[in-house]
Design a protein that fits this description.
With 106 residues, the protein is an all-alpha fold. It is built from six helices and no strands.
């Protein structure tokens, strides 16, 4: 699937649906415990004009960092979601829910 997405990305790199597909594929990789591939997808989606895509990509990046025991990286990503003025409320709520637990070490 990633190879097909890469080909589409080369022809329409900033198309919102392509960048949204990177978020979806990132979570698919994360579910398969392939955090390096997931992280690459999330990083690409951060260039999206869509606040939803950017916020979801940051949440996915935080999850990748947690899966590799990078707590400080995860905290940074969750704080970035909370700092986004245009992030969807439901994504901000998730970041706000997880951030205190990470800061406490839980």
């Amino acid at each position: 699937a990633y190879d097909v997405l890469e080909k589409v990305t080369r022809t329409s790199p900033k198309h919102p649906e392509v960048l949204g597909a990177h978020v979806d594929l990132g979570f698919a990789y994360l579910n398969k415990q392939q955090s390096a591939q997931a992280l690459a997808c999330f990083k690409r989606a951060l260039s999206s004009a869509s606040p939803q895509h950017r916020a979801a990509a940051r949440m996915g990046t935080a999850a990748c960092y947690l899966s590799t025991n990078n707590r400080s990286g995860a905290i940074k990503e969750l704080e970035a979601v909370l700092a986004m003025k245009d992030a969807p409320a439901h994504i901000k709520a998730r970041a706000k829910e997880f951030l205190p637990r990470l800061k406490k070490g839980g």
